[in-house]
Design goal:
Strands 3-2-6-9-10-5-4 form a seven-stranded antiparallel β-sheet. Strands 1-11-12 form a three-stranded antiparallel β-sheet, with no helix packed on it. It has a two-stranded antiparallel ribbon with strand order 7-8. By secondary structure, it is α+β, with helices and mostly antiparallel strands. It contains three helices and twelve strands; from the N terminus they run αβββββαβαββββββ. The model has no long low-confidence stretch (mean pLDDT 92).
């Protein structure tokens, strides 16, 4: 087992940690908000998880390396769009550094509350941050879900695994 210590050991641990999570599939979401000037910002996230039903709450991690991090972390509210397989183009666009995320190829509209909504996503959760905790090169945000917009569609979920996007296969039989 790799432990922390020297810079070389820390680098090896970081590499082993990254490799471990490459093989742990995660759902894919796009997080959107408005920056201080009112411009839309967003990023692709695979670090979103439900944490509470009462009140409805989730947690996500925002890397400080993304250009949208500062605006998302300063926002009073944001949307978490849960993606399905047919939304892989959105996932790629919002994950690409320097991409025009809200350009002509992206259908979006602001909600009455201001957050950029991506209507192609089957579900969007409107969130208000409860806490922000810096952890290394990221900030973990716990947020209360203030509203849900759902199309009612039940498409194939989009999953990120081993640096690529995938669709889940059929469910395994019950034991």
């Amino acid at each position: 087992m790799t432990t922390t210590g020297t810079t070389a050991e820390s680098s090896l641990l970081a590499s082993a940690f990254r490799d471990a999570f490459r093989h742990h599939p995660a759902g894919v979401a796009v997080v959107t908000a408005r920056d201080g000037a009112g411009a839309p910002v967003g990023l692709t996230a695979s670090s979103v998880a439900s944490v509470s039903l009462t009140p409805p709450a989730l947690v996500l991690s925002i890397s400080h390396r993304t250009s949208a991090a500062a605006a998302l972390l300063a926002a009073d509210s944001f949307l978490v769009h849960l993606l399905e397989a047919r939304n892989v183009g959105l996932a790629r666009r919002f994950a690409t550094s320097g991409a025009d995320r809200f350009g002509p190829d992206t259908r979006w509209t602001p909600l009455v509350t201001g957050e950029p909504w991506l209507p192609e996503a089957p579900t969007a959760l409107r969130c208000r941050p409860l806490s922000r905790t810096r952890v290394g090169d990221a900030t973990v945000v716990t947020a209360e879900v203030a509203g849900v917009r759902s199309s009612g569609r039940a498409g194939e979920p989009l999953v990120h695994h081993d640096r690529g996007y995938h669709v889940l296969g059929p469910a395994l039989p019950a034991s």
